[in-house]
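@channel sequence for tomorrow's demo:
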Amino acid sequence: MKKISFKTILSLIAVFLFSANVNAQMPEAITISPENGTAYDEITLTFNANLSCTPDGKQDLLGLQEVYMHSAAFELGQPAGWGNYSVQFDETGANGQYPILSANGDNTYSITYIPYEFYGFPEGTVITKITAVFNDGSWAAEGKDFLGEDCCDFNIPLNYIPDEPFVTFNCNMTKMINEGYFNPLNNSLYVEIYDFGVIEMLDLNANGIYNTAVDEGLVVNQEYIYQFRIDDATYEDIQRNFTAILGAITIDVWWNDDPIIPSFYTITTLTNPFEGGTTYGDGTFEGGTENTVLAIPNTNYNFFDWTVGGIQVSIDEEYTFILENDITLVANFQLIFGTQNYDLEFGFQFISSRLISENPDMLIVIEEILNNNLDFVRNSLGQTLRKIGPIWVNGIGDWIVDEGYLVKMFAADSFSIEGTLIDPATPIPVEAGFQFVSYFPENPMDALIAFETIIGDELDFIRNTQGQTLRKIGPIWVNGIGDCQPGEGYLVKMFANDILIYPGSSSFTCGDPFTDPRNEQTYETVQIGDKCWMAKNLNIGTMINGSEDMIDNEIIEKYCFDDDPINCEIYGGLYQWNEMMEYVSDTAVQGICPQGWHVPTDNEWKILEGTVDSQYPVGDTIWNYALWRGYDAGEKLKSTTDWYFGGNGTNDFGFTALPGGYCKYDGNFYYLTIDAQFWSSSKNISSSAFHRRLNYLYDEVYRHSGITVYGFSVRCLQNYLTICLFRKKTSLIK
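structure tokens (generated this afternoon):
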């Protein structure tokens, strides 16, 4: 029986733990020409800075004239670490050559050299790879490879041919261990190669996968029959074979070719309403495991329950369950206390509130404007609150929540009301004659829909502050008001008594155009899966030059590509992450999106990608990876026009992603018609947040974390809205 030699153990460590073998994958940011070049050939190594990982606190390597390579050659059988034969970035190689890569003009850089001469290793040494990091001639800027969402050194494999066969065996014993047929403490595993020998195998990683390597004695081109066996007598039910070649081969198998096939499922959590709280526990996990989701209410909200498909599953904030399939859980919250702000202008205006104040005394409710800016407040009965001599006299009494009020101002001022939210469907009696009525819904709504329950023969007209009316002209009801606005009151004239009941939600239907009341910008909308997306990039705010930083000044600021406002009209604004988030770090945030919409999270982008991709559905683990993922999600999201060199998409779902480019922290703009870059609200680390990238060359979608001072595009996603606030079963609409 052959025992494992120290040399073989070193080879195993190199092969299994650090992938130092001929089958290693070339990093995405590196190309070698010729592809089969060895350490003894002249090769051209090209580094693509566009595809490299920039460590936190470092600058990237884009737009330079040259970059420097800090590297080493890695010898066959060498344990982990940096290569034995290294050249510092600020030194010359053994042949006097500088480790400098010249720019090719597209953020790629190349160096042509012979590794054998450059690193100075002894002739005949078998070199399997080059380890490398690139910089700008200092360590201020770096380019590394990706390891998940982190950065790591580049491992660049080179072609090599050992002087005899090198065979690695990996046998996965996990299922045998789980079923009690193999005990790692009491049993040993061997590979028996007939007409050669028996070799003991080791579980180097303590993960149930046993390894060994045969690095000498095999005859080139000879076929060998082998089996795995436990201890001295328990053989597999099958026999196997391999042919030794001059080079390295790896054999990866399960005992008896009988693997464990785990099932993985995705947990998605949503908040209702969106701003009601924060949830934790999303992700992809193995089926049959116990998982926990957690809901934490925001200020002024209470947690109500967890629901699945509208059915209550728990009333506890922390809910633990066995994961048996993909599941979407909704954490439902109730608003218990809110604030409504009023900006009053010179002259007359109607106001109202959807909040029930703890102390409704009119003198208390509007205390902030009891000054020389206010002339009077009047109710439907003609009663007033006004100053008589030095004293404010309250002839109204209490603020009644279902009433509106006429306010006359000598000068602009503001105040706020705090209180408990009223159910928007609370009935409001309206009587024959004139009266001011309150507007209860939280969001704007078409006046024809808002006042639907009183539109008929009993209604004469409804008027807003600007004098615009909803009234019947001939046989047709004409809406001159447009959308009703939260905080505004309305003058209603009735011919007879009736009851006004507002609908419980906005009248907007996904697929209809949505007009942002802040700047009258209209956006097409599209439902993809069960979510409603804007089909156009957000365009809100005041343009500043790309050379200026966005600041927290209560003004929404935006970049327009090349500082040209026409580009904002076409491609939308470009926003730094903090500006987009309105300087709030919570993942669940409206940000600069309109009321009723929010900035999508990283997980909501994953759901979009899985919904549109033809190969990888929602919940597939591929969406958790970084860089280019999926099969054709990018192609289906891209617009059918405007992409460089015909790199258009099919726009199958109407998302209409346009290549709006981005603004870098240096104030310059890049890649118009080439790239689309979209922020998510999910931060990765202190200085970066997850984003998505589409490119004219790729059908996939790129996921990575971008530095928060970059200016990227923003797409808004509609919130979930409750049909009724206080309920026992939650019904959700988009």
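heads up for whoever presents: Residues 6-18 form the longest helix (13 residues).
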